[in-house]
């Protein structure tokens, strides 16, 4: 298993042909209190960079993009009752959705944890 | 991930007198109304809840502090505002509206009879347009002054009075919508018992050279924490207080906005202010929409711009909306066609193609706690 990060502050955990996607601790910190998350329906297909989910904080609504192309296996139903999981466990229980990866080649160019940390330190 | 509601600023924002202080307090600064302003410190919800239970310090120095003076200043101002101004007692404050010829709202503001002059506090984003409008319409012998070297702090919450009294003795005698001159460490400060959060509280006008000392004295009290624009917005939404540029614009009018209390009864027929003809026709049944409150089920907020439906008919649009930390569900203000404004009407709000059930509810969403005379 390997975890990658995007410049839009998503994380993607890859295990074989599937991936789990969420937003980073840095992102949830920027958003503030999350009050609602809209996750994609099972079976939805996304191109890389497509709007796949929406996260609403007290302040504003923000889009979450698919970091790679794929078909949604499931959205995290726990977020329906507990959207605050995005604040308390952004890189674990607060995941957004699982994908079947369409093209593993698209993982090229994503950052690893170290590169992502360096990226955030520059912001 | 991207923030879809980021405001685009045309010019580099200016810095407030307390800019460095906000950053030292952990404030996250964002561009707003031409200034870099703190949106939050520890978090919007925490700051919101703290304001409702203790006292929060807001920096509202972006607002315009103006004065109008000279012979007949009140009478001249009455030609631009629909309220009574000449009958405003010394130290008394009144909410008012600047209207254009069509009765559209140029800005909302607070007028205070400050003794030698009438003090005006106007919105930060509108202040230059307001100054131009006032200067254009007021006679040359009326002096208009912009106190751009004064900061404005708001201390809001149920513990605001006891905290401020300990720092500026005498302010506890003020009641809601009254103001006076006080002293803080030998400096004159102008204190009013008002705010825009629905809580009891004060606004303190102080020269920019002394504002940091005052801010430090306030947060040295453990009952006070700094709060940002984010909490200010969620608080004023719960209090159902309209926000200029959102709930009030040139396209809205006092009748539709539910602000007829700002039109003096004596002047409803006689007029004598800019925008009277348009306003009177709306008072006589010519208005079609009204600003109302909507409570949403579930947790998904409806934001500004979302359309309101009754069955398949679009009957209104949301002008402010968000999640209410106090109530635990989303709320929204909307302009809705009059037949659908009755309390308890079931409506729907469309958010990203999905219809969310909503019900009309009375204003304010959360009760006001102002310190009124005799209370």
What features would you describe in this structure?
The complex is a heterodimer of chains A (123) and B (375). Helix content of chain A is 20%, strand content 37%. Chain A contains four helices and nine strands. Chain A has a six-stranded antiparallel β-sheet with strand order 1-2-3-9-8-5. The longest helix of chain A is centred in the last third of the chain and has 9 residues, at 113-121. The mean pLDDT of chain A is 94. The relative contact order of chain B is 0.14. Chain B has 375 residues and is of the alpha+beta class. Helix content of chain B is 20%, strand content 34%. The interface between A and B is medium-sized, with 23 and 23 residues.
Secondary-structure blueprint:
The complex is a heterodimer of chains A (123) and B (375).
Chain A: E1 2-5, E2 10-15, E3 18-23, H1 25-31, E4 34-38, E5 45-46, E6 51-57, E7 61-65, E8 70-75, H2 78-81, H3 85-88, E9 97-101, H4 113-121
Antiparallel strand pairs in A: 1-2, 2-3, 3-9, 4-6, 5-8, 6-7, 8-9
Chain B: E1 2-3, E2 14-15, H1 19-24, E3 28-32, E4 35-40, H2 44-53, E5 55-59, E6 64-69, H3 73-78, E7 93-99, E8 105-113, E9 118-122, H4 127-137, E10 143-146, E11 150-156, H5 160-167, E12 179-184, E13 187-192, E14 201-207, H6 211-219, E15 224-226, H7 229-238, H8 267-270, H9 276-286, E16 289-296, E17 307-310, E18 313-324, E19 329-337, E20 346-351, E21 354-361
Parallel strand pairs in B: 2-4, 5-15
Antiparallel strand pairs in B: 3-4, 5-11, 6-9, 6-10, 7-8, 8-9, 11-14, 12-13, 13-14, 16-19, 16-21, 17-18, 17-20, 18-19, 20-21
Helix pairs in contact in B: 2-7
Keywords:
heterodimer; A: 123 residues; alpha+beta; six-stranded antiparallel sheet; three-stranded antiparallel sheet; globular; B: 375 residues; six-stranded mixed sheet; six-stranded antiparallel beta barrel; 9 helices; 21 strands; 34% strand
Q: Are there runs of chain B of 5+ residues with pLDDT below 50, and where? A: none
Derived structural class of chain A: alpha+beta
H/E topology pattern of chain A: EEEHEEEEEHHEH
Report the average pLDDT across residues of chain B: 95
Q: How many individual β-strands of chain A?
A: 9
């Amino acid at each position: 298993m390997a975890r990658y990060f995007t410049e839009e502050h998503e994380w993607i955990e890859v295990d074989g042909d599937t991936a789990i996607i969420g937003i980073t601790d840095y992102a949830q910190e920027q958003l503030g209190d999350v009050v609602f998350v809209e996750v994609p329906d099972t079976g939805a297909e996304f191109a890389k960079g497509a709007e796949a989910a929406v996260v609403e904080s007290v302040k504003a609504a923000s889009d979450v993009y698919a970091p790679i192309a794929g078909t949604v296996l499931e959205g995290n139903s726990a977020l329906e009752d507990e959207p605050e999981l995005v604040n308390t466990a952004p890189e674990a229980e607060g995941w957004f959705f699982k994908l079947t990866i369409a093209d593993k080649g698209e993982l090229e160019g994503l950052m690893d944890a170290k590169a992502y940390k360096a990226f955030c330190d520059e912001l | 991930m991207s923030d879809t509601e980021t405001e685009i600023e045309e010019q580099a924002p200016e810095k407030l007198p307390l800019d460095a202080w906000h950053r030292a307090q952990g404030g996250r600064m964002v561009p707003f109304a031409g200034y870099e302003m703190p949106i939050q410190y520890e978090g919007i919800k925490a700051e919101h809840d703290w304001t409702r239970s203790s006292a929060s310090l807001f920096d509202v120095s972006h607002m315009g502090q103006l004065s109008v003076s000279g012979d007949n200043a009140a009478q001249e101002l009455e030609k631009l505002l629909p309220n009574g101004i000449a009958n405003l007692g010394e130290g008394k404050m009144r909410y008012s509206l600047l209207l254009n010829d069509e009765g559209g709202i140029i800005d909302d503001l607070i007028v205070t009879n400050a003794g030698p002059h009438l003090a005006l506090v106007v919105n930060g984003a509108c202040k230059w347009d307001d100054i131009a409008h006032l200067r254009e319409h007021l006679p040359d012998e009326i002096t208009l002054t912009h106190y751009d070297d004064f900061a404005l702090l708001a201390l809001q919450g149920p513990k605001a009075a006891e905290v401020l009294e300990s720092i500026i003795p005498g302010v506890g005698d003020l009641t809601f919508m009254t103001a006076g001159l006080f002293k803080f460490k030998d400096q004159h400060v102008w204190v009013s018992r008002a705010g825009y959060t629905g809580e009891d509280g004060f606004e303190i006008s102080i020269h920019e050279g002394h504002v940091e000392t005052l801010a430090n004295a306030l947060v040295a009290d453990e009952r006070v924490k700094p709060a940002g624009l984010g909490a200010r917005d969620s608080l004023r939404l719960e209090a159902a207080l309209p926000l200029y540029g959102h709930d009030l614009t040139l396209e809205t009018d006092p009748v539709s906005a539910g602000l007829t209390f700002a039109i003096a009864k004596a002047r409803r027929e006689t007029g004598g202010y800019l925008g009277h003809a348009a306003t009177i026709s709306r008072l006589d049944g010519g208005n079609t929409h009204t600003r109302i409150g909507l409570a949403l089920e579930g947790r998904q907020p409806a934001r500004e711009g979302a359309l309101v439906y009754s069955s398949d008919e679009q009957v209104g649009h949301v002008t402010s909306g968000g999640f209410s930390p106090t109530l635990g569900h989303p709320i929204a203000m909307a302009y809705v066609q009059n037949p659908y404004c009755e309390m308890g009407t079931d409506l729907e709000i469309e958010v990203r193609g999905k219809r969310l059930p909503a019900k009309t509810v009375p204003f304010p969403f959360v009760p006001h706690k102002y310190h009124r005379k005799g209370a």
